[in-house]
Amino acid sequence: MARDGSRTGLIGRRHECRVLDDLLAQARAGRSGVLVVRGEAGIGKTELLNHLLDRATGCRVVRAAGVQSEMELSHAGLHQLCAPLLSHLDGLPEPQRNALRTAFGMQSGDAPDRFLLGLATLSLLAAAVGDEPLLCLVDDAQWLDRVSAQTLEFVARRLLAESVLLVLAVRESGSREIFPDLPELAVRGLNEHESRRLLDSVVTGSLDQRVRDRIVAETRGNPLALLELPRGLTAVDMAGGFGGPEPRPLSGQIEAGFLRRVRSLPAETQQLLLIAAVEPVGDVALLRQAAERLGISVDTAVTHAEASGLMTLGTWVRFRHPLVRSAVHRAVGPEEQRRVHRALADSIDAELHPERRVWHRASATVGPDETVAAELEGSAGRAQARGGIAAAAAFLLRATELTPDPVRRGARALAAARANYQAGAFDAARELVDAAELSHHDEAGPGRATLLRGQIMSATKGAGAGLPLLLEAARRLRPYDSGLAVQTYRDAIYAALTAGRLATGGVRDVAEAVLSAPGHVDTGSREGLLLTGLARAITEDYAVGAPMLLEAVAAFRTEDLSREDGLGWLPLACRMAHSTWDFAAWSELSARLVDLARGNGALAVLPSALLLRLSNRVFAGDLRGAASLAVEADAIGEATGSGFFAHYGALVVAPFRGQESLTRQAIETVTHDRLLQAEGKVTTATQWAAAVLCNGLGRYEEAYAAAERGCENPQELGLSLQSRVELVEAAVRLGRSAPAAEAVRTIEEMTRVSGTAWALGTSAATRALVSEGRAADRLHQEAIERLDAAEVRMDSARARLRYGEWLRLEQRRAEARTRLGEAHEMLGEAGAEAFAERARRELQAAGVRTRKPVPETPVTLTAKEAEIARLAQGGFTNPEIGARLFLSPHTVEWHLRKIFAKLGISSRKEIGTMRLDGMAITS
Question: What gap in Å lies between CA 556 and CA 569, rounded to an integer?
């Protein structure tokens, strides 16, 4: 695009340049910035990036560009951007360092979780800042490979105080919508006056006014079109404009102009351009080597290519515009393209770049070729090991096309389908499963295909939609792959518990399928025992299955667990520990699951692990610890654009605090979350939360209605059982003795089977509410003793509150004051303000002069600041805090400076002396 005068500004882009200049000034001042520059092809996005380069004196600059043919090479764009910064790798925490090294093929190892890879990239960019800001420019970002795009989106959401400016240029009509909800600069066409100025800058001869008007009208202010279309005009066109209007889209007209220019070049120059077009990395040495293999006079061809203005050779090969690459492809036939691919494959070092080499070999291959197919399959394995699922899918698809043997072709098609499913390409996965089922299989093939269909259905339609297919898959797999069959039953029953009342067929159907499987599930293993116990609790009776569940949960506590088993089985084991009232096991296993997920960077599992642990901490009476876990879970959601985690954390914590507006907001959001529409468990969880809230606030009619709905589906276990406990309290307060007595009978039957201190304490607490006289007295005391022994402090404190209320009504005021005082203290320490206020009112009624706490003007921290302060107080370093909350160390330091200012301190040493528990927290 032409500029005004001496490169002081682009024609018609004053506003856009000012936005970019302001962001650059912000980065120089220590604040990070992110901008997606979005517009159609040729609108001037690259020129705006060049404007930033002109202004980047005193900044470190790294660049990358997406290439359409490179979209299947995982991490390619990210590696291009980060390669100049890899000298800073050693300063990163080990898990982050290993994630990047594995992703870039610098070492072997397990595929890094994509969130861990994002955090590692964030830390690397922050580490590279030093004394000068870092400017990261990514052109044609719509063509980045999937992993690179996801990683950069993660980074963009977390940048704050690192002095990093990330600018991504995205073609508006790209193949997929990327970087939604990030700050955006929409680049529009030039106005008529600006278009005429730009057109005049490139037209050297006389141009008929009618032709000028037509060009300005048809190009609609597109700068590249204004610069390129006049090149295709003949003298007759320029003089009279007798040619008809061009029917093709503007981008097609521009590409046609480039195509004419390519075809006007010597044959060897066209070949050189084709080599550059099909090898997306832009490696000049490789370009020369492949050209020499084809007998091209390289220097002469380069001279012609650069003179044409279509391509430049510097450190990297760069085209005038991405449409030039498309034009070069169209200029030659398929056989010539295969010749170029063969030359490139022969020129690439198989040891250094096996994936690039085999991709070119495959592109040069016409018919079935098992050797190339096997190499592609091997490359898929390497790509998958680095976390490049999308690349693995592309390699496996091409391997399928080249496989001559029908059995192998079916297996590879199924593997390609699974890779596409894991990459989120569900339509492609479904098509490949169809293709796989038309091929021959080994015995387990049909079962694996059905399993994949069920998983795709669950991912696209909801947890319950895929259940019938998952069950059919498990049945088919059982004779041939018992291990995979058991895992499939596990996933099916977990999905059924989640789908709850909304599941097609329901959890009972899954449980019956587990019990009726040929050979049944092996109860000699803890996994088999867990599945069988749950299935029998659902299909026969809780009393039949609970002992098996308790035995299985105990085995998970005492026996060693591999990483895979821990991440796969502990979520279900935690839920069953909760459902069998085994609080000690629930506490231990949820802590192990969180540690395992954190330690292995398993961030796909970590959010649900945190929420399981969060619920446990609420019952332990540690609402502040639960809130801390909610902040960590929210950090993951914030980084990935999901607000669910924050709302679910509020759903569990806010009711005990009596925070009605926050609870109602969480209920509303979770209930109407599109991704949770098929999960019946959401109804149970939200109604339980409403029941707790209203019992705390003393609104028992509302509590009763919510609790009644929360325990409608007892097969869900967990919070359905807890809803029944809330129902008893509300029913007794309302004088509804019959439903209260029925609920107590159910609770007593279930807790007697469990026999744990939590179970028996809960039973005693609910029976006390429907009893009178000495029996009630004895049961209240038993409940407190057992709940104390179980260390379920929230339930223990509430038991003291109920006992104190009963004692006051029995006119035993001195004893009532003792128990109510204990309850008030415990609930206050826990942060359960609503229940603590209920205890305060009861104390006042019992004759104790109390004053409602008058809120001081406390130091107010945000939830994130409070968590950072707590971690700093616990001795965590800035990188460790950053790793926990998905922040860069620079951003942690920025938050700490704000915290220090609010607290009136100046160092980490002083924060160790501060009492953080009583501080006000804002959202």
Answer: 9
Q: Which two tokens stand for residue 692?
A: 């707790």
Half-sphere exposure of 834 toward its Cβ, with a 13 Å CA cutoff?
20
- Residue 800 corresponds to which tokens in the numbers above? 């003291």
Pairing of strands 60-65, 134-139: parallel
Smallest CA-to-CA distance from 707 within 736, 738, 684, 737 is with: 684
The 10s digit of each residue's pLDDT in 676-688 is 554 557 788 899 9
The pLDDT confidence band at residue 6, using thresholds 50, 70 and 90, is: very low
pLDDT for 478-507, tens place per residue? 888 888 888 888 888 887 887 765 445 567
What are the backbone angles phi and psi of residue 701, rounded to the nearest 5°? -65, -45
CA distances from 212 to 199, 229, 233, 868 (A): 8, 11, 11, 62
- Of the candidates 777, 780, 725, 726, the residue with the CA atom closest to the CA atom of residue 750: 725
As a whole number of angstroms, the distance between CA 718 and CA 574 comes to 10
Work out the burial of residue 543: count CB atoms within 10 Å of its CB; fewer than 13 is exposed, 13-18 middle, 19 or more buried. Answer: middle
Residues with Cβ within 8 Å of 680's Cβ and at least 6 positions away in sequence, in order, are: 464, 498, 499, 500, 501, 502, 503, 713, 716
Q: Which of 137, 151, 116, 181 is nearest to 27 (CA)?
A: 137
CA distance 183 to 278: 33
The amino acid at residue 778 is R
What's the whole-model pTM score? 0.72
CA distances from 627 to 618, 632, 697, 883 (A): 9, 9, 21, 18
Q: Give the confidence band of 442 by pLDDT, cuts at 50, 70, 90.
A: confident
Q: Is 716:535 a contact under the CB 8 Å cutoff?
A: no
d(CA 655, CA 691): 8
Residue 588 neighbours by CB under 8 Å, 6+ apart: 557
HEC string of 827-894 equals HHHHCCHHHHHHHHHHHHHCCCCCCCCCCCCCCEEEHHHHHHHHHHHCCCCHHHHHHHHCCCHHHHHH
Token readout for 247 is 């029917």
